[in-house]
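Q: Here's a chain of 702 amino acids. Please give me its 3D structure as tokens.
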Amino acid sequence: MYSIDDLCDLASTYLKPGQIKKIRRAYEFGALAHEGQTRMSGEPYIHHPLEVSVILAQMHMDHETLIAAILHDVLEDTAVTKEDLIKNFGTEVAEIVDGVSKLTHLGFESQAEKQAENFRKMMMAMSNDIRVILVKLADRTHNMRTLGALDPTKRRRIARETLEIYAPIAQRLGMNSVRLELEELGFKALYPHRYEVLTSEVKKARGNRKEIVNKIKNSIRRRLRQEKLPAEVLGREKHVYSLYKKMRENHLSFDEVFDVYGFRILVEDVDMCYRTLGIVHNLFKPVPGKFKDYIAIPKSNGYQSLHTVLFGPHGVPIEVQIRTREMDEVAEAGIAAHWLYKTGGAANSAHKRARDWLQRILEMQQQAGNSEEFLEHVKVDLFPDEIYVFTPRGDILELPRGSTAVDFAYAIHSDIGDSCVTARINRRLVPLKTELETGQTVEIVTAPGAKPNPAWLNFVVTARARSQIRHFLKHLKEDEAKILGKRMLNRELERYDTEISKIPKRRVNKVLKEFNLTTTDDLLIQIGLGNRLATIVAQHLVPDSSEKNKEPATSGTPLSIRGTEGMVLTFPKCCHPIPGDEILGYVSAGRGIVIHRKTCKNLAEFRNHPEKWIDVEWEENVEGEYAAEIRIENKNQRGALATIATAIANQGASIEDVSISEGDGNHVSITFVITVRDRTHLARVIRALRPLNAVSRVYRTG
């Protein structure tokens, strides 16, 4: 356990005496504020913020960060206010403390929502001062070190949160040493038995490996000395959690994972990195395809190093990392190294990349519908396995593995993503859902008027693309709902010889207040989405309408279906209505109007809610294509399916789905879902199928 003297001694190795005095004053202020408070372990509470500050001093953080660490819980747990902090320690310290403070006093419906909202607030605070997350990570590190005092349920919850959120953030910010400690402690708390078994196996295996490790290390050192290249060669320890992840993800045994020997070679400059690479490749044969150059193309968190895998003595695999000492410092400390190397290129690069990432997070926050959706987006962003692709101008773009052309388009600009129609990879046209690979040159083809497709959500992998598409579709749906809602309301108001634009503003405002809505647009959207019935709204808008409105709800002019209503009109699979069918609408909350054929057997379910039925009809010139289901009874003969599919295609219809059910061995029943323009088009398809030898019977279902 550290004392304030230990902290000051550590900080005095790199801070000025005046700054040390401020740190000591902050400790006295915090100790007084937390007086009488204890942790679950029984120790005085001030020990926790002091330990957090020591963790940050070991990273050589500036004095404002150390002061903020000592005071990081005073706003939440004591009577100290933000104004008190500004007065005593300045605005910078107060803002960091405010950003770190937990939001325990807010009410949330669920633990998941609370976690998501806290995370969202933390990210927003990070965007103002990146030191907020450094204090938060140090706070979490010390909490994980002292997790034993909590009950098992709480321990597991905090450990899972650490592994899912805080360790990946540390990795994203390049803070490798913090990440490793959080992962080890999180794994130990979440799976104590697995941790013990693996730790025991590592200890046993380490003794057997010692001789081989020393032999390889000495071979590398000897060759580097012969080439007069000064370097430090270190054996890399395998961490228990990384071993566990590899075993689980790749379905490998412990021996298979642990049978890899890791080494790190530290040299003076970049030129020596590449010279060292040549020397080790000359000493041991490299494994093809296993070389990665993170110096020329750094990782998103600023990490730089050369990685290679070699065939060692007796065929054992050797993993070698080659980097400069400054790169090594940045690899371990990440953005915290920015305060170590104020002018260092690698450290400033890490800091810039962290800022860029936070900027992307901010954009996601603005697009996300709620905190849980935001947390989902960020989790996707926190677990990248990167690929590197080129723009047509030769710029390098980094994306998570599995990214598609749509992810690439949104990574360039949201406008390009919204209007993309196809892509060229290495000058060849490809579909938008094509997965990208490292080294490809990608060009996006856009078209004016093109819009995001909801189906893109099935294959995009980046959080940015997902949030932008959802944001666009949400607004598109609201626009469509507003237009449909206006048509539905005006249709109801026709009975009273009026329309929404003729209703006095005072009357409209009164109804909006009754429904707890702000604008007329909000009301129309609610109607279009099916959340409010146009009949009821019309009765509220027209005084004494209950006396006038003697007609049943389904009377009046039917609502015309144009086919352009978009996502607020639903065509269910139970009956697959198409233009030309006699149809009926059912108002469904959140879905707008669900269109059924009048012969649909499911309509019986809705008889108890006649107020939700709405008379609808197809307009004469309906746009688009619609799904229809046909069933074919046919002889089980070779090539029959291909013959039927060709006949359907020849009539200009597309096949969306096929399912086959066996009959008596000689006959099978095939169900096709095809897209047609209307009943006439469907009749033409059926007529074309009837004469085929393979077809015994063809009919429409539903």
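Q: Can you summarize the key feature?
A: The mean pLDDT is 82.
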